[in-house]
Every structure is written in structure tokens, then in C-alpha cells.
Amino acid sequence: MNYVIIGNSVAAVGAIRGIRSIDQQGTITVISRERHNAYGRPLISYLLGGLVTEKRMAYLPEDFYEKNRVNLLLNSEVTGIDTAARQVRIAGGDTIGYDRLLVATGGDPFIPPIEGMADKDRIFTFTTWDDAAKLKGIASDIGRVVVIGGGLIGLKAAEGLHLLGKQITIVELADRILSAAFDRPAGRVVAKKMKANGIDVITEDTVVRIEGDGAEITGVTLRSGDFIPCDTIIVAIGVRPACGFLKGSGVEVNRGIVVDDRMETSVEGIYAAGDVAEAKDFFSGVKNPMPIWPDAYIQGDIAGVSMAGGAKAYEGGLAMNSIELFKVSTISMGITNPAEPKEYEILTYQDLENYQYRKIVIKDGLLAGAVLVGAVDRAGIFSGLIREKIAVAPFKDQLLAPDFGFANLPKDIRTALFAPAGKVTETGRPAVAVGH
Length: 436
Known about the structure:
The protein is of the alpha/beta class. It contains nine helices and 26 strands. A five-stranded parallel sheet has the order 3-2-1-7-19. Strands 9-16-10-11-12 form a five-stranded parallel sheet, covered by helices on one side.
């Protein structure tokens, strides 16, 4: 069997392991447009800020590809797929045949059209190792930076630049930072910490024009009319599934590549996993992209097993976001901002002085979502309670306590959550972890 994987991040790693768990003999070829082996994408802000070296970016053993007999093609751009001939086309004219194909290309940064952008030099995105390297290469010439977007990517870019001593302003269209994953109180806690570290945060506004002379940037004008001086801009609006090369292939693409529970697409023999895939949600069953690192690994593993002829099904993605900023850890999971709040019971605890906040969302006695800020070391317990659909009403108030731990749970629930693979350990962390 000839397996081809497009992309070389965490979903690809899961797929390689999934394939090899069943098929030790088949040929595996991985095609990546990046020039690096698989690395921890959440580390790129620390690489920029100098907290980690390039040697620490890899999260796989040095012999991973060799041991799994993977043909690795780096710095290679896929331009199209011929599904009839079962071939992948690569820039430069080469083709690679496949029996089973996995698309695990992740997402491409979304860059909106902004007046004055076209002829400017210092406009960057921040999703890859090379993005961080480019910024680091000109760091000595950077004075003031505007980050457009207050989501996970934008905040990590700001943190990396802050480590280099730069002046930073974050501009976010929503009424709070981290609006997609967190609620208002959680956003306020994080914003307070960022402001305490000298980072300006502007909400409910957006950049409408980039000012400057020729290629040089002098600042940005906001919709409110305010002007912010800067010489460098980071665009962190969000990402879109990277699947433009599938045009004309017959593979169904909606917001992402539509897949079934085996991660197979509408075209037999072609699979998708990770940020590029549109798979079912754990709660609703509705299909949508789930750009979550651990979920990408799970999808990749299922795709790999399915490609090799095994039987494994996707139970649905649980929205989960985690970010640490200036030593304040945050995690959100599940339904955190219900569209119909009256159908849910929502309980909160907050200690803004100590940058702590906790929120749980309950429906029909079951935990549907949680937001943890400042005390997140028991997050694995919360995700276990959600996935196992365990009734939490009898001990719901204890979930809010900052010192909540495994011992606070009733014995029968501790037994249900403890030890089985894929569930949580006594420390409250997942029993099977994937690399970050």
C-alpha cells in the first residue's frame, strides 16, 4: 500500500503512527511546504522571544521518520490532485502516486484587504516557525508594533515581541480579547495582565488604513479615527483551511474538507485531518473545522488507522483552547458562551486581583463547558466529565473552588475517570497526552 500525507504537523504524526499500528510494510510519503521537521507550533512565540532555541522546537525523537520508514519531502508545495490517476502534483512538475491520501495541511492566515497594505514591507502573519524567524531577523529594527486581532495567535505574537522589549498595541474588533474562546470576565482578566505588562489593548475598533511613505509604515488609522504610530504590523485575524489545491478534484469542501467518522472525504481513498478538516462536533454532531492541537492528533490517528484498513471512529470534536500569557494559564472547553443561556445553568467564581476566574456551564445536570483562568492544572478532570457525560449536579459547587482536585470527586466518579486510556489520571491530566 502506498500512503501519501500532505502536511507535516501533529495530524500527520498521528496518521503515521496510526498507519504503522496496522501496516508495517506500506510506503509512507509525507509532503510538506515547510522546511522543518514537525515542531511545536505553540512554541513559536517563545522562539521569537528567545525563551527556547531552535533545537527545542522539535517534539519528536530525531529518528521518528527513519523508524517509521517515512519518505519526507520538505519545502515541497502541492499544486493539485488528480483523483482519476491517483496522483499528487508538486510545484516544479513532479507527481507522486498514492493508494491512500491524507490531507493534513492545517490553515492559512486570513489577511483582509486593508487600505494602504499593498505596498508596505513590514506586515507579517504569525502561524509558523518561519514567521517567527522573519520577525526575529529584523527585531533590532522594530520599535512599535500593532497586532491586528486579539485571539490566540495575536496574543502569542504580542507576548513574543514583548519579550524582545517592543512597544505593542493590540486592536480587536470584538468587545474583548479571546472573544471566540472565552467569555467577557476571562477576557478582562487576560487583558488586565497584558496591560500590567505594558501592552495596550484596544477593543471594539479595527484598522481601516495603514499609513506610511512608500514601503515604510508610520502607523495605522482605526475606524474610530484614532491614529496609532507603529513601524511593524502583525495580522492575526484568524486562519482558513489550507485546501485551495483541491479545486477541481471533486473533494467536497465547505468551510473545510468535509469528512465522515473515519475521516474519509467525499472521494474514496482520500482522507483529511486536523485544522483543514470539517468533522462533527461532540455535542451537536454538526460538522465544522476544529483547529485544536490535541484534536488534530486524534483525527490524524483515526485517519491513519482507517487508511490502513482498521476500524476506528471519531466521537466528535470538543472545542478546547489553551494559552498561557505572562504566567497566567487559561483553558476553555466545550460550550462556554451558550446561544440560549436560559437553557443552561451557569456558575462562576472570580478573583481578579489574583488573576483567577472559573466558570462552568451545565445542561440537564451534565457539564457542557468550562472556562479556567489562573488555576488550570485540573483541566483534564473537566474534559473527562464532559466526554463521559457524568452527572455533576451533586458536586457542581466544588468545581468552582480554586483548589478543586481529584479528591473532591465522589469515589464512583473517580473510578470512572481514573486510568483507562484516553481518560484522565489522578492528577487530572489526560492519561494519553500528545506533544505540544
